[in-house]
């Protein structure tokens, strides 16, 4: 199904916005601009048209104009009156910029100068026009067909108001002149929406933020193709229109990403499937108060979590990731949701988890992925629905990896002894001597009652003895304590999910709050 609609294309340099038409299909977003084309009678370019108007006793030239050099825009035809001279030529259109009047160049003329020329040009006025494809929106030119005649000429002309030239000018001929009409040999012109840019949506990304800032655009966003081609800033008339188009484009991009995943998975073994992938914004490390973010492409595939600067399009690209982490050793956290106009939900308030990030920035839909050695990546997505998908996908990818792996063993030490610590999906926790392989202790997941660590290398695990009901403390020292703690978390969560999937779903912060709002 194709979605179409009118929007504005905002030019950040000139700060002007231009009327455009958007056409959205499943695979492509097309931007169209209006132009006048020759449809019959001639094959020459419609860029410049020279038209002779015969001034009529009633109705004059039958058009109104806007603009002028003092406003850094050409003088353009803003109205064409039904059944009057301009309309009868069949060669003039609303949005035509006037280049010449009776051979006099008016491209640098003011509004008043052009009005004066047209009103005093005699009974026959020859004008040369060119359709202005990028007419600034402040001219407020109607996009549709010429409307009914209206009489609103005033004594003083303003560049932002129409000067009516449908009244009589200074005519020397008092007899009625015959109406202008195109002859059989004259070319026929039409104003049409023409494709000017097509942006493929496969692996495309959307940004609602002003480049290099943390400021959200008002009812506007930009779509960037995989090759970097941009639509420019698409501005919408209402918040509802902006939200509808954002959702529609995001849905199509997601559907195409799903197709790409299915294609990629045909070449991968069952244990190395892509679970989810897509664009996010990553907050740069050490970013100052401007809170700079950079586009990153994330993927959950097989046993790994990948971070790319550009999407992987071939099998070889997977080894070119900026970062690759084992899924058992990462921890996914939602940090911020946007619920309403003035209401932030910070997930840590509900979960009671330690907050590593300041929440000064104004971006909603934030999550972090904590990795080994206490490091973290902080991400933001454009829509709440995307946040919910990432939460569920991380959960699923981690659970699958835990079940595939079965167990993970880490080297550790305590009081000078080199030990091995194993987390096993079926057996729970086992600690054994690395040399003799003698088991020192073993506990089920359900026996773990608490833990504490020094934030560096040491951890205390508190287990309940099934016979005595007493708490036994086991202390261990690891080279990368964070990775081990994340692994324990992953295995326990996967164990709970295997026993009670409904409980895990009920813990979903994003889905719970996004879908009820």
TrEMBL record:
<dbReference type="InterPro" id="IPR055108">
    <property type="entry name" value="Syntrophin_4th"/>
</dbReference>
<dbReference type="GO" id="GO:0003779">
    <property type="term" value="F:actin binding"/>
</dbReference>
<protein>
    <submittedName>
        <fullName>SNTG2 protein</fullName>
    </submittedName>
</protein>
<dbReference type="InterPro" id="IPR011993">
    <property type="entry name" value="PH-like_dom_sf"/>
</dbReference>
<keyword id="KW-0963">Cytoplasm</keyword>
<dbReference type="GO" id="GO:0005198">
    <property type="term" value="F:structural molecule activity"/>
</dbReference>
<dbReference type="Pfam" id="PF00595">
    <property type="entry name" value="PDZ"/>
</dbReference>
<feature type="compositionally biased region" description="Low complexity">
    <location>
        <begin position="143"/>
        <end position="160"/>
    </location>
</feature>
<feature type="compositionally biased region" description="Low complexity">
    <location>
        <begin position="170"/>
        <end position="185"/>
    </location>
</feature>
<dbReference type="Pfam" id="PF23012">
    <property type="entry name" value="Syntrophin_4th"/>
</dbReference>
<feature type="domain" description="PDZ">
    <location>
        <begin position="50"/>
        <end position="133"/>
    </location>
</feature>
<dbReference type="InterPro" id="IPR015482">
    <property type="entry name" value="Syntrophin"/>
</dbReference>
<keyword id="KW-0206">Cytoskeleton</keyword>
<keyword id="KW-0009">Actin-binding</keyword>
<dbReference type="GO" id="GO:0005856">
    <property type="term" value="C:cytoskeleton"/>
</dbReference>
<dbReference type="InterPro" id="IPR001478">
    <property type="entry name" value="PDZ"/>
</dbReference>
<comment type="similarity">
    <text>Belongs to the syntrophin family.</text>
</comment>
<dbReference type="GO" id="GO:0016013">
    <property type="term" value="C:syntrophin complex"/>
</dbReference>
<dbReference type="InterPro" id="IPR036034">
    <property type="entry name" value="PDZ_sf"/>
</dbReference>
<feature type="region of interest" description="Disordered">
    <location>
        <begin position="143"/>
        <end position="188"/>
    </location>
</feature>
